[in-house]
Design goal:
116 residues; mainly alpha; 38% helix; 3 helices; rod-shaped
């Protein structure tokens, strides 16, 4: 039991490594070696399919303050249409409720002076 374990033999000598001339990878078996060139195809495909940010033209404006009657922006058109419809419908409803008949009586009943 006084024996020590033997160490393995060390190899001394040149090491010959064969590399592929095309890809530079070591060749284990030249008959089964397949060169695979790495490409950035997936990265380019992802970049092409990603939505591109649209450039701002500087024509952004608030739809409630838009003075252009021919403005092509959707919020401006809808807001103006609703404003026009509400104005017409509001007047019709007001007249139907009797506002035109009651207005002179209301002015006369007001204690303030409404003379222009």
């Amino acid at each position: 039991m006084d024996r020590t374990q033997r160490r393995g033999k060390t190899k001394a000598g040149p090491h010959i490594g064969v590399k592929c001339g095309k890809c530079g990878k070591p060749l284990g078996n030249p008959l089964t070696h397949v060169c695979r060139e790495r490409t950035d195809f997936k990265k380019r495909k992802a970049a092409a399919s990603a939505p591109k940010p649209q450039a701002r033209t500087g024509t952004a404006h608030e739809y409630t303050t838009c003075d252009d009657d021919d403005c092509s922006k959707y919020p401006c058109r809808v807001y103006k249409q609703g404003l026009a419809d509400g104005e017409v419908l509001g007047r019709q409803l007001g007249y139907a409720e009797g506002w035109a008949q009651g207005y002179p009586e209301g002015i006369a009943a007001c204690p303030r002076s409404h003379q222009g």
